[in-house]
Amino acid sequence: MLNVVNLAMPFFLLIFLGFVSGRRAKLSRDGLAWMNFFVIYLALPALFFQLLSETPLEELATFDFVAATTFSTFAMFAIAYSFARFVLCGNIGEATVQALVGSYSNIGYMGPGVTLAVLGAGAAVPTALILCFDTILLFILVPMMMSIGGSRNVRVGPLALEIFKRIITHPFILAVLAGILAAAIEFKPPVALDQTISFLRQAAAPCALFAMGVTIALQPSRRTAKELPILLLIKLVVHPVLVFVLLEWIGGFDSLWISTALLMAALPPAANVYVLAQHYSSYVERASTAVLYGTLASVVTLPVLIYLLQSGILVP
């Protein structure tokens, strides 16, 4: 258990340092914007590109794995949405953000750092695939649901074009596609470029986690929500359980890939849930509370899962 604590705590300590810095330091949000730009557009894409480009192409053609993990995320979105819409009787906009709380893992900021530290470089491919296809799924679902909720006369053409543009211009997806292409043609970047990419890759996890802590600290978290325990139960417990059941049912997956999928599913709600709530002016303050409390709850749930994986109890 001590090894598990030593593995997990640095991630939460980096988030905590960012949180304290965000609360105590009297700094503007402009600096955070630049750090987020560095993480999202440079450091994490460099990480995904380098790891994928070094992977044999046949290891990337795992359609059943992608189908299982993406369906699990969609199922959590549908369950959380149904709970918010039909049990809590919320409107479509609020229910959509609540569905994100129950399904949208912090796969960008926390995912690569956690999976690579716990499982090693072999987790890079499944991590990148989950991140890529979960991002595509949510880029489709959120604008579509918000458009339906905001207007009865949804114009399908412009909506589809907007979704397509967001998908093909997202830096994570572009990095994954570039990495797959590089693996296919066995491209080896020049030494100077490869070293630059390595520098960016090494900065990805610590900068992402620190920026996440600052982001949480700067978000308002004054409104609690009675539905939050149910949404976090869906996100932190039901999501990884469904992933495990589906992958075991399909069978034939390497234990490292199953462990990676479980860790990605067990991550707390992404900080981007608040960003999207703010963008659509729906469920804003409660979304920030969900991100904060979800991250705090994962301090317990994530190390437990890591222990089950490291000890071989869950995935031999």
- What is the succession of H and E elements? HHHHHHHHHHHHH
Q: Could you name the CATH class?
A: Mainly Alpha
Low-confidence stretches: none
Number of β-strand runs: 0
Overall SS class:
mainly alpha
The major β-sheet equals: none
For this structure, the CATH topology is: Na+/H+ antiporter like fold
Which range best describes the helical content: under 10%, 10-25%, 25-40%, 40-55%, 55-70% or over 70%? over 70%
Rg, Cα atoms, Å: 19 Å
List the topology elements.
Elements: H1 2-24, H2 30-53, H3 63-87, H4 92-103, H5 111-119, H6 124-150, H7 156-168, H8 171-185, H9 191-218, H10 228-250, H11 255-265, H12 272-279, H13 284-310
Family: Belongs to the auxin efflux carrier (TC 2.A.69) family.
Main location: membrane
Keywords: Cell membrane, Membrane, Transmembrane, Transmembrane helix, Transport
